[in-house]
Amino acid sequence: MSPNSLIPSHRKPRRPSPSSRALRAGVTGGFLTLAVTGVTVPADAAEKPVSETQEMPTITAALATSAAKSADTAEQTAFNYERQALQDSALSKAGESAEKDKAEAVKKAKAAEFASQRKAEAVKKVQGARKAEAVQARASRSAERTPLSTASPDSGSSTTGSSATLVAFLKAQLGKAYVLGASGPSSYDCSSLTQAAFSQIGVDLPRVSQDQSTAGTQVGLDNLQVGDILYWGSAGSAYHVGVYVGGGKFIGAQNPSTGIVERPLSYDQPTGAVRVL
């Protein structure tokens, strides 16, 4: 062992050679970063020459442009999604509004139909009530009146009560003129004469022959009573009327040539008869 081996050495530590330096490089956040290990930078070496760093701006600008384009694309996509969402929402609301309007229209139509049906039913009930009242009134009048004749039908016997008043009025009109549409007192047509005669005993008859032929109860010509209305033509469509006065005769305003006359049934056989008393 050398006697000098225990004496501390006064040599300076050897600096690493340039070949031992390690260069590390990487890209962080779009920027190029360099790390040098084991390199001591002189104090007077603050910046590297521009020629050594001229690639850095080019790489940074390209990455920034790409990132900007990506951001623009993402923003446009988001805008498109938002616009489509608004359109879908508007269409959905319009559809809901249309369905609501349709349902309301159907509801109103059903209400109108129901109201129309109710109105028709009400009219029908009113008409039925009026018809029932008319039938009841006619039955009441028939029950209150005195029978037209005390003898057998078509016997020619004298009449009493209201029938006598009826026949007396008709006989008083014999010889007066027949004028179509006239209602007395100097002239009549067939239906106005019967109407005037029955008004003398408180019976209101319709004005025309067609209605008078259905004003009472239909009776056979072989079962006539004084005061029965005779008609010619069919019931409801009669073209002529007269009044049976007993003894096989009737009185009526026949035509402009004869005026008001009394004739036997054989003179002009009637089609049918109705009884209103």
Outline the structure in words.
By secondary structure, the protein is an alpha+beta fold. The chain has a domain at 161-275: endopeptidase domain like (from Nostoc punctiforme) (endopeptidase fold (from Nostoc punctiforme)). Helices cover 43% and strands 18% of the residues. It is built from 5 helices and 10 strands. Strand 1 and strand 2 (31-37) form a beta hairpin. Helix 3 (161-172) crosses helix 4. The radius of gyration is 63 Å and the shape is rod-shaped.
Can I get a quick summary?
By secondary structure, the protein is an alpha+beta fold. Helix content is 43%, strand content 18%. β7 and β8 form a beta hairpin.
Question: Helical amount among residues, as a percent range?
Answer: 40-55%
For the record, the CATH architecture of the domain at 161-275 stands as: Alpha-Beta Complex
Q: Spans of 5+ residues with little confidence (pLDDT < 50)?
A: 18-41, 50-55, 143-158
What's the CATH C level of the domain at 161-275? Alpha Beta
Q: Which radius of gyration do the C-alpha atoms yield?
A: 63 Å
The N- to C-terminal Cα distance equals 175 Å
- Strand neighbour order, sheet with most strands: 5-10-6-7-8-9
